[in-house]
Amino acid sequence: MIRILTILVLVAALGWSGYWIAGRMSVMRGIEAGVAEARAEGWEIAWDDLSVAGFPNRFDTGLRGLVARGPGGWGVEVPRLEVMALSYRPNEVIVVPGTPLSLLTPAGPVAVEAGDLRAFAAFDGSGPPQPVRVEVEATALAAQGAGIAARISRGVVAMREAEADLSHDAALSLSDLAVEGIDAPLPAVFDAAEIDGTVTLDRPLSDQPNVTALTLRRAELAWGETRVNLTGALAVGPSGLPEGELLLELEGWRALLPLLTGLGLAEGQARLLSAGIEGLEQDGRAEIPLTLSGGMLRFGVIPLAPLPRLPAPYSP
């Protein structure tokens, strides 16, 4: 009996070792195929060292000296990148980049440092890799570039597939946000910035989609006695201009006026806006209906700002 058990254990160990080796080869082939496809699309990708370890229960992929530059000027330079997955759940990965790292943008590089920075992603394994859930978490993060510096004590970004086709629930939460270098009278620190909504796309994420609709359940910015929250829904039509209705909720709104004029709102518009808000204020709070139409953001008949033209949704 002992001899039979020993043989069974050896067979199981050899089988699992074979599975891990085959999985490691699959990881390497996947990296090679993904890099080849990216390079064919104009990306420049290089690294100093690549390894896959973690036997027997994990696939730990390590990249040292990774540099990736896209044709549009976007990219990243990372001193090290660790991608970890359980060998029996390879479609769920944890990604830990080393810092300081550099984000490459068309406006120049952005230096990023963090006490901790990591991401989790789960993919649909039924076809081409499609993320069904993504979470990014950072603590003590600081970014600086193009004369602007920002820092947060903690930040979380999350995305998951929603029930409707091509829709994704997305959320953002930032604590103790500070921004320097913007020519406007910003508060020294925003206590919190939070967004919760659903984005609808015209194609799957892997096909470089455009936005067709956005539902905002919450978009809040708070500092001191001031709180700004935006809710509503908008759609993007063939023109690329967003249209819809939003509701702006304000508390401690008078602190906003110097900020808006500092960002370019004309003095006359600011006076009209102030008078309109005063008429809506109740118990220190005001709810302001906003309209996005004809390429302009309006409060009633008051034009506030021109709207950006977004990429038009795909029409087959």
Q: Would you write up a description of this structure?
A:
By secondary structure, the chain is an alpha+beta fold. It has a domain at 1-129. It has 3 helices and 18 strands. The protein has helices at 2-40, 256-262, 267-280, and strands at residues 44-46, 49-53, 58-69, 75-86, 89-97, 101-105, 108-113, 116-124, 130-145, 148-161, 167-180, 190-201, 211-223, 226-236, 242-251, 285-293, 296-299, 302-306. The longest helix has 39 residues, at 2-40. It is globular. It starts with a helix and ends in a 10-residue tail after the last strand.
Please tell me the overall pLDDT: 85
Computed CA radius of gyration, to the nearest angstrom = 25 Å
Which series of helices and strands comes N to C?
HEEEEEEEEEEEEEEEHHEEE
The tally of beta strands, per DSSP, is 18
Helix content: 10-25%
Question: How widely separated are the two ends?
Answer: 66 Å
Largest sheet: 6 strands, antiparallel, barrel
Task: Name the descriptors.
316 residues; alpha+beta; 18 strands; globular
Which helices and strands, and how do they pair?
Blueprint: H1 2-40, E1 44-46, E2 49-53, E3 58-69, E4 75-86, E5 89-97, E6 101-105, E7 108-113, E8 116-124, E9 130-145, E10 148-161, E11 167-180, E12 190-201, E13 211-223, E14 226-236, E15 242-251, H2 256-262, H3 267-280, E16 285-293, E17 296-299, E18 302-306
Antiparallel strand pairs: 1-3, 2-3, 3-4, 4-5, 4-6, 5-8, 6-7, 7-9, 8-9, 9-10, 10-11, 11-12, 12-13, 13-14, 14-15, 15-16, 16-17, 17-18
